[in-house]
């Protein structure tokens, strides 16, 4: 394929803008809080149920993503898969409007969230696999970083619309009332419309490398066979498996940081709820800036260098956050942490984009999804147990630095595919 046009590349980035709205508004901030506070029996039970649902979705993503990727590589392209799974997420998200603030709707809410999350996660696998076919190798870092940065801002933009238009207003938009928490439930169809609207440019403008064209039954047979060979030949691809292991570890650290950063700010530094929201917004903005800025480092010096620089920055700034008792120092270090978060995620996508051969891209991005989800429970579990044993949030949060350090050590033994 020739390099894609600027409108096509812009449409590709808008997919990240669209997809991130689901994770920001539904999974992290608005609907998750609504479920635990108003739908479940009590906040404690709701937190446990929500955690179990997201864990089930993560486990299914880890198990099925490599299989779906391998099959897609043998079929009729990856863009169609990204669109179909996005539509699944959009449909289930819109149905969350039906979840009323009563315990009888718990099962429906959790079932819809699991399926919607699977749709959003699987769509990302095929979306990521399209990247190497859009721009030359020497521009992959900038393109990945720009897309990731747009994704951060898209999630924040949708969250801002939800808060201003429905959640934190006396007169919600479009005449939506507040009976049975209708103004909160309305954020779900709003996210669905947001996702659909910004999916359309991707669907019509972004080109896709032609698939191998096998019919579904043949694609499944060949795809599963190829995945089996990849697993059997692990020793012949040491860089791939070391990278996947390193990605698993530092992604666990990032997952734990996202899940507990606000809790740590509130418990150790006395942040109010409003300050926690401000902290989350600031972290996303600096992460977007870092993802875009480090794209140049990625293209000039390689994805491995960009990831390593990001992890080193996270280690230094994280250590400052753990030892400091000053709220001002925490804010400065936390904003710097944001600058290094985005590059680690964006450059990891670039590393795989440069490594994966064209005929196996979706399969290998599926394996990358597996490495990012397989042990996602481990960081939060260790943090909770260390905090309980020591009685200190600082000691619990320190486990995040261990994940970053071990991931960085593993990364040191890997060749950068750009330079190899």
Structure description:
The chain has 420 residues and is mostly helical. It folds into two domains: 1-232, Growth Hormone, Chain: A, CATH 1.20.1250.20; 234-420, Up-down Bundle (Growth Hormone, Chain: A). It is 79% helix and 0% strand. It contains 15 helices and no strands. It has helices at 6-39, 43-74, 79-95, 106-130, 140-167, 182-185, 187-205, 216-232, 238-269, 273-301, 303-323, 327-355, 361-373, 378-390, 393-411. The longest helix has 34 residues, at 6-39. It is globular and about 55 Å long. The chain starts with 5 loop residues before the first helix and ends in a 9-residue tail after the last helix. The mean pLDDT is 85.
Question: What would you report as the Rg, rounded to the nearest angstrom?
Answer: 21 Å
Give a quick account of the main beta sheet: strands, pairing sense, barrel closure: none
Strand content: under 5%
CATH topology of the largest domain: Growth Hormone, Chain: A
Order of helices and strands: HHHHHHHHHHHHHHH
The helicity comes to over 70%
Give the CATH H-level superfamily of the largest domain. Answer: MFS general substrate transporter like domains
Mean pLDDT: 85
Distance between the termini: 23 Å
Give the number of DSSP strands: 0
Structurally, the number of domains stands at 2
Residue stretches low in confidence (pLDDT < 50, at least 5 long) are none
Structural class: mainly alpha
- Please tally the helical runs, counting DSSP H or I stretches of 4 or more residues: 15
The CATH architecture designation of the largest domain is Up-down Bundle
3D shape:
globular
CATH class of the largest domain: Mainly Alpha
């Amino acid at each position: 394929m020739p390099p894609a046009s600027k409108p096509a590349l812009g449409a590709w980035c808008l997919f990240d803008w669209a997809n991130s709205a689901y994770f920001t508004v539904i999974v992290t901030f608005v609907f998750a809080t609504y479920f635990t506070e108003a739908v479940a029996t009590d906040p404690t039970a709701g937190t446990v149920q929500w955690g179990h649902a997201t864990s089930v979705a993560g486990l299914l993503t880890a198990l099925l993503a490599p299989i779906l990727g391998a099959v897609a590589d043998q079929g009729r392209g990856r863009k169609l898969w990204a669109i179909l799974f996005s539509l699944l997420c959009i449909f289930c998200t819109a149905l969350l409007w039906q979840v009323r603030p009563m315990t009888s709707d718990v099962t429906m809410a959790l079932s819809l969230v699991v399926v919607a999350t699977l749709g959003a996660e699987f769509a990302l696998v095929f979306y990521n696999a399209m990247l190497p076919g859009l721009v030359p190798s020497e521009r992959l870092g900038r393109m990945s970083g720009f897309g990731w940065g747009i994704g951060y801002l898209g999630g924040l933009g949708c969250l801002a619309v939800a808060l201003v238009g429905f959640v934190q207003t006396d007169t919600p938009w479009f005449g939506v009332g507040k009976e049975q928490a209708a103004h909160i439930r309305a954020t779900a169809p709003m996210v669905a419309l947001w996702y659909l609207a910004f999916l359309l440019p991707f669907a019509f403008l972004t080109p896709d490398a032609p698939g191998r064209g096998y019919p579904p039954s043949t694609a499944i047979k060949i795809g599963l066979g190829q995945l089996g060979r990849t697993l059997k030949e692990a020793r012949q691809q040491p860089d791939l498996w070391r990278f996947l292991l390193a990605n698993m570890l530092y992604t666990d650290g990032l997952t734990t940081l996202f899940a507990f950063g606000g809790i740590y700010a509130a418990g150790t530094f006395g942040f109010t709820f409003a300050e926690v929201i401000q902290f989350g917004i600031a972290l996303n903005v600096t992460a977007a800036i870092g993802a875009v800025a480090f794209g140049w480092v990625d293209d000039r010096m390689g994805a491995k260098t960009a990831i390593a620089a990001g992890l080193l920055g996270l280690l230094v700034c994280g250590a400052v956050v753990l030892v400091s008792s000053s709220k001002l120092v925490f804010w400065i270090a936390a904003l710097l942490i944001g600058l290094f978060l985005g590059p680690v995620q964006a450059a990891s996508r670039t590393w795989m984009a440069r490594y994966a051969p064209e005929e196996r891209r979706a399969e290998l991005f599926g394996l990358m999804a597996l490495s990012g989800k397989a042990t996602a429970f481990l960081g939060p579990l260790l943090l909770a147990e260390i905090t309980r044993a020591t009685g200190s949030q600082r000691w619990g949060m320190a486990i995040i630095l261990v994940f970053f350090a071990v991931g960085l050590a593993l990364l040191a033994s890997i060749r950068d595919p750009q330079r190899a």
